[in-house]
Amino acid sequence: MESTSQQQQGGSKRRRVSDEGSTTLLRLYRLPVSNCCSGVLAALRYKGLAFEDCEPPGAHYSDSLQQWRPGYGTAQYKEIVRMGSVPAVVLKSPGVGSFVLSESATICEWLEDRHASPALLPPAGEPERRARLRFVIRHHDLYLSPATKALFKYCDPRSRAGGDVSLAAALSELGVRLRQLEELADEFGGGPRGDEVFEGRAFTLVDCCLPITLLLPRQLQTTLEDRQMELGCVRTEGRLGRWLATVIEHPVLAPIVAEWRTATDAWISRKRSGRDDAFEEGWWNVGRQPMGSVESIPIDGAENAELEVRSE
Ligand SMILES: N[C@@H](CCC(=O)N[C@@H](CS)C(=O)NCC(=O)O)C(=O)O
């Protein structure tokens, strides 16, 4: 973003992509309950980029579901974002027009290409190191996240009535994917930063994109506790569990985790009620915090010196 200006204030880097009246505007469409949105949000905040923090337009009352629904998947939102999913970004530059992108991993990699510093991937000169991390994110997007989200419907007691064969299969699939991730996390062990960051060497896109998904099964546990939920939870004693417990305290992630917990707890209790009318207008904004301003984020360039030095 050529028009981006950088400010040094109190030792923190703050960069504006969007200023009132300025040339370039970055908008993020997201919802606080969405695990897929958290990675993009974390990457934007880590890089200190300001953006317009928006919900997808098109919220409505669904006659068929008999509940209020947020804007994703609607025709109105699809006019802006073809896939209809969140997260999505829109970059508006005069003379260039709108650039629209969805799919969280693609957005994160685009941010990395546009705003190389502070870096969230190893430099291009280390292709295998980059590829290993991107594999972890691909594993999350293709396998872990869908397996986790498959549990959502069982929060509603109406979905659990009449036998749990499909829930057992869903938990088993999630268990397989989690054990694969635990093995991957072990392979990354032994680096200079220990279990503080997934790679063991630097804070990367994996630290941005995975934590919320990994917190989800525990959050759902109250609902499904009598149903072998342990199978679908990260083991606290392993490297993956130690990393997860540490990384969610990172100043970039902590507010995102807090917002997500509030939103998700509220969503789960609605779902557990088994009542469609519990999903009243605006439920998807419970707990929502304005995240687009970067004023309060301590971005310490030295923190990721390992990536910064190498990318120069
Ligand atoms: N692989 C996608 C998944 C996005 C996704 O499934 N988002 C959900 C919310 S968590 C959504 O927008 N669902 C509604 C839809 O796709 O119509 C990504 O990482 O961006």
UniProtKB/TrEMBL annotation:
<feature type="domain" description="GST N-terminal">
    <location>
        <begin position="24"/>
        <end position="119"/>
    </location>
</feature>
<dbReference type="InterPro" id="IPR036249">
    <property type="entry name" value="Thioredoxin-like_sf"/>
</dbReference>
<dbReference type="InterPro" id="IPR050983">
    <property type="entry name" value="GST_Omega/HSP26"/>
</dbReference>
<dbReference type="InterPro" id="IPR036282">
    <property type="entry name" value="Glutathione-S-Trfase_C_sf"/>
</dbReference>
<dbReference type="Pfam" id="PF13409">
    <property type="entry name" value="GST_N_2"/>
</dbReference>
<dbReference type="InterPro" id="IPR004045">
    <property type="entry name" value="Glutathione_S-Trfase_N"/>
</dbReference>
<dbReference type="GO" id="GO:0005737">
    <property type="term" value="C:cytoplasm"/>
</dbReference>
<protein>
    <recommendedName>
        <fullName>GST N-terminal domain-containing protein</fullName>
    </recommendedName>
</protein>
